[in-house]
Write a structure and sequence with these properties.
Two copies of one chain form a homodimer. Chain A has 112 residues and is mostly helical. Chain A has one domain (16-99): Arc Repressor Mutant, subunit A, CATH 1.10.10. Chain A is built from six helices and two strands, in the order H-H-H-H-H-E-E-H. In chain A, strands 1-2 form a two-stranded antiparallel sheet. In chain A, a hairpin with a 4-residue loop joins strand 1 and strand 2. In chain A, helix 4 packs across helix 5 (58-70). Chain A is elongated and about 55 Å long. At the A-B interface, helix 2, helix 3 and helix 6 of A face helix 2, helix 3 and helix 6 of B. Chain B binds a DNA duplex (30 and 30 nucleotides) through helix 5.
Chain lengths: 112, 112
DNA sequence: AACGTTCATCGTATATCGACGATAGACGAT
DNA sequence: ATCGTCTATCGTCGATATACGATGAACGTT
């Protein structure tokens, strides 16, 4: 799955770029950023919790949570009636590292 | 324009979230990530340069470049016929720092 | 002057996003 | 069994994103 770092330069393109873009897309919405912040302050939140914080319809929040889960940034587990959402700090850290890597690539490969 | 870093914690919410989301949105497209990588390898590129790398129509590339410029990730300067696009490494680094800050916030505020 | 090059913009078509209300399923409480 | 709560999903709607070709402006070259 992980190719060597140098291969990333050969195929700079679609593979890694697509993957990173997909994760950043999940992050690129204010409501989802706020959801992550809220989740980070609690061990696990149910959907209603988040709804009360955000002033958005329950269905909308549910969709945002789904996006975050599908992007791998939030873990999901079904309680009885509730659904528990828990932030995935490792995945978050992974994105941070990926962005830092991209920036590093862009800054280190200065032409002259 | 730049509030103090601690103010970011007070008003974690919409303002900074929106700003970060907007910049991440500019980054969340594979073509734009590849454009940034390409720009990083050259002092400045004209639109046609990028077109030849990307296998996209010239108008499409022009639009992607416009998105990057409007997000502040790329600087624009008009040559004679050409348009020169240059990566803004500081802005890139700023985004990286913002993402790292968000992740830090999410990881440091563990409930227990 | 006529032509080629480079680029931004316009118009268009399609797809996806973001938000909502309505609804149905699952579950606990009465 | 009935009611209330919590949630996911469906359908819908408007807005936005993405891609393209066509076009015209600006400029250099012949």
């Amino acid at each position: 799955m992980n190719v060597s770092p140098s291969a990333d330069f050969n195929e700079c393109g679609s593979a890694s770029a697509k993957a990173l873009a997909a994760k950043l897309a999940a992050l690129s919405h204010p409501a989802r950023i706020e959801i992550l912040k809220h989740l980070s302050g609690n061990r696990a939140c149910c959907c209603k919790d988040v709804v009360q914080q955000l002033d958005l319809a329950q269905s909308t929040v549910s969709q945002h949570l789904k996006v975050l889960v599908e992007a791998g940034l939030v873990r999901f587990s079904a309680e009885r009636q509730r659904s528990l959402y828990e932030i995935d700090r490792e995945a978050l850290a992974g994105i941070s590292a990926s962005v830092a890597g991209l920036v590093d690539t862009c800054c280190s490969s200065r032409p002259t």
